[in-house]
Structure formats: structure tokens, C-alpha cells
Please model this.
Amino acid sequence: MECRLCGSGKTSEFAAGVTRCTTCDAIFRDSPQAPSKLQEYFEDGYYKRRSNPLRMKVWELLARQYMSYLRRKTSMDFASALDVGTFHGHLVKMLKDEGIRARGIEPDREKVASAVTSGIEQGYFDEDFDPGEQFDLICLNEMLYYLPDGVAALRHARTMLRDGGHVLISTANPSSTMITGGRYTSIENEWVNCFMSKKNFESLDGFELVDYAPFRGNMLHDFQYKSRAYVLLYLAGLKKVNTFDPDGNHVLVLLKKA
Ligand SMILES: [Zn+2]
Model:
């Protein structure tokens, strides 16, 4: 199997129907799932976890992490921003609180209906998505791996970026031994298509890779695999939501339009 990302022939089977490239580290589904899978996942029931106050707090705490990363890595002088896969719009709300004109799209109608701010529309970030304006910042957090072609999605995002604009991505880090060791992978889920690697982000046309910061997602892990009650520890500030770690299973990626 040739690597779908870098074209290398040095690949091996990672799981049934999933290949890992030893040249670039990308992990990808051999035949990408059709976008209709995403609709099944988000709109037709697979991801029907209803909102509740605890879940809302989880998404708020995650959005805070994105804000604190942006504050550390950028000058925050964004006039406008788009958050793709915004859930309830917590990040959009926080960006607005900074004086940034922000809006979001989210496929899950139930989340849109319970959005915490205005400017949240139901929609998909596919080739038909046209926001009708350009942005200084586009956020693609925990969604790039669902898309059939992440590179094409970033090319599409670039057309919506002003000169010097940034893309913030939170995604899986396929170079992490937590993932290569098979402990923390979600790619066996048929709606996950690809984990792009640092090398893939470095070699994107029209972008400069500003930062690649792997981290362990402590809160999401506890929330998904341990007990919901753990969220209280994070809310109280007794545990760190994320811990930066070169071998972390997640990563924050900052790209700049070149
Ligand atoms: Zn490759």
C-alpha cells in the first residue's frame, strides 16, 4: 500500500483496513470513508450523546486550552475567526470576548441548538462550504481526522485565509508511542479517516509550520475511559486538562499562510 500522504512505499498494516507509513508516520484508512459516514455519525445517531451541564463544562475547559495556546504562540491580533466543528461554540464565545469577530460551524444540530453564543451555523467543512469572507484565524480542532482528505481540507481552508493568517489544529499525533502502541487510537472507528503527521504538516504547500506541540489529553481520557466525576477535579483546577509531552497522543498544530 502506497502512503496516501507522502507516496512512500514503506508502509505496514496498522489495523484492519488501516495503514501506517514508516516514512512520514501518517496513519490512514486504505479507502477513505464517504462524507455520508460523517452525516451518519454526527446527525443520524452514532454520536448522539445529549448535552448536559457536565459535558458543556468539558467543552468549555477544552476551549480554554485552545485560547491559552493561542495567547502563548500568537499576538492574538486577529480581526476575524472561524471555528470549524465548534460544538456549542465555546471557543467562538471566548474569541468574541477578546474582541475578535468570530463565527462557527458544527454538523450536530442538537449542539447548534444549544450553542452558548450567536453565529453558530449547522454545516460541514466540505468543498461546498463557502463562508463568503476571509479570516485571520481558522480553527480545525479535533475534526481534521474525520475528513476523507485532510490535505485537501487545508488547501480549502487556505483560500479562506487572509495573507499571514493562521490555522489552529488540535488532532491526533500518529508519531506517539501511545498511538503506535495501539493504546490510544480511535482510527479503528470507521468514521475516522487519517491521522496526519508532523512531516505531513511540514510539507503542505502554501503553509509554514509555526509550531507542533504534542500533549497528553488528560481530561478527555479520564472522561471517556474512567469516570465522568473526574471532570470535577479539572473544574476545581486539581488536575491539568492537558500535559505537554513530546510523546503525547494529541497535538496542537499552528500553521501560517505562506
Ligand atoms: Zn507517508
